[in-house]
Amino acid sequence: MKPCDSEQVVAVIGGGFSGTMVAVQLARLAGTRRCRVILFEKGNRFARGVAYGTTCEQHLLNVPAGHMSALPDEPSHFLDWLRRHDPDAHAGTFASRQQYGNYLEELLGSTAGTSPVEIELSNDEVVDLVEEPSEGSITLKTARGNSRRADHVVLALGHAPPQDPAGLVRPGHLPGYFANPWNSGGLEGLDPSDPIPLIGTGLTAVDLVIEAEARGHRGPIHAYSRHGILPHRHQAAPSRVHSGHTDIAGMHTPTARSLLKQVRSEARQWQAEGGDWRSVIDGVRPVAQTLWRGLAEPERRRFLRHVAPRWDVHRHRIAPQIDDRIQAAREGGQFEVVAARVLALEVDEATRGIRMRIRPRGASEDESRVYRRVFNCTGPSRDIRAGSSPLLKAIIRRGLGQPGPLALGLDVGDSGALIAPGGRENARILAIGPLLKEKLWETTAIRELRVQAADLARQILS
Ligand SMILES: Cc1cc2nc3c(=O)[nH]c(=O)nc-3n(C[C@H](O)[C@H](O)[C@H](O)COP(=O)(O)OP(=O)(O)OC[C@H]3O[C@@H](n4cnc5c(N)ncnc54)[C@H](O)[C@@H]3O)c2cc1C
Known about the structure:
33% of the residues lie in helices and 19% in strands. By secondary structure, it is α/β, with parallel strands linked by helices. The two termini are 17 Å apart.
């Protein structure tokens, strides 16, 4: 038993937005409690993560500044920060993702500098957790061979890395294939006139097009996906705000099909009244977690198969400036979206490049194209078992936690506490962010994560 005035040690694993904000909130909320936070990050920068660690300054946020505060109780916190750096910024500004990373870094630094809570930054990867029942604590083991003890552990590991499209690539057999374009530097050293093929037409593909353009790439860029649909753009300013989705929010025992039908019908009706469908989607967002929780498991599977791709395309939108550039590249002939299934990638013996076999939508025959490099832009994997995280593997192997039935995330209780096989909730190991996807579905945007971080900190300190 620990004496009640002893120091509480909280280990936060992952220094992206979620982990950073748990550390910040612990420091803000600890009051007179003695608490120390160890924030682990395996990458080379804290307070960035995948999204805000981009090296391309032309990558913009896909949410306007007025909605990007990291602090739920101070809605204009980011906008105020941005205005100090750019007096012309306003609530509708789409700031750069690098700027947002700077904001988070400053927030972490200033909080650590003024709070009595010590925030220790450890640039190390946590690879294993061992429960110490007699001590009432957890031992963390790191890739650099260190062992640390903590009273609570927060898993803020972020998104699973992208998964290779089914059966397409045998790992290690395809030089020039970039499985994860977020951290591969795959555009480095590419001949500016080489064609660039992207598998996927979502947000990652848009990022690659913008980065290639920023690097002065002149060659063609081909993006492949079954339906060939790019993300939609945000409205410059909503003309009319759609309020009250009582019909959707109040649906009892919804099914994937009934949800789709209801959203479609409301969008049609709203458009007939002169509104924009985006307002309807935005109106569903606040109740999306409740709707997901109301779906039985077979319906969740149906949702993933039939509805999720459409939901993602309408829900994850891009800044108007980014869309303008994408459309200009399409109209200028540099960027082409190809509706096709990518069937195989193999070494082209003649050129030592990659031969991509595709079946264009509606065609009865396959086509082949040869590229020097190929980029997998299919986005984060929806199966947490697919990644190679030694820590997740250790957690599952040791029976400290388990994937949910759909493997979208870990099995967690309402508080975010891991549920071990057998059903025991472990209040010492808590998860945040994309790891909660099985429980919440919508758990990646700042508006959700900032609330989770504050709630988790309160719970740990209580
Ligand atoms: C390209 C992109 C753009 C986005 N833009 C927006 C936007 O404009 N607005 C918005 O609201 N949301 C946006 N999002 C959503 C975004 O996911 C969240 O905003 C947020 O960044 C997720 O943060 P996270 O900390 O949970 O995960 P991550 O950012 O993935 O961070 C997890 C961190 O944990 C570290 N880590 C993992 N395992 C270990 C380990 N074992 N030991 C130590 N460290 C470890 C990783 O290195 C990583 O830095 C965007 C997402 C992406 C991918």
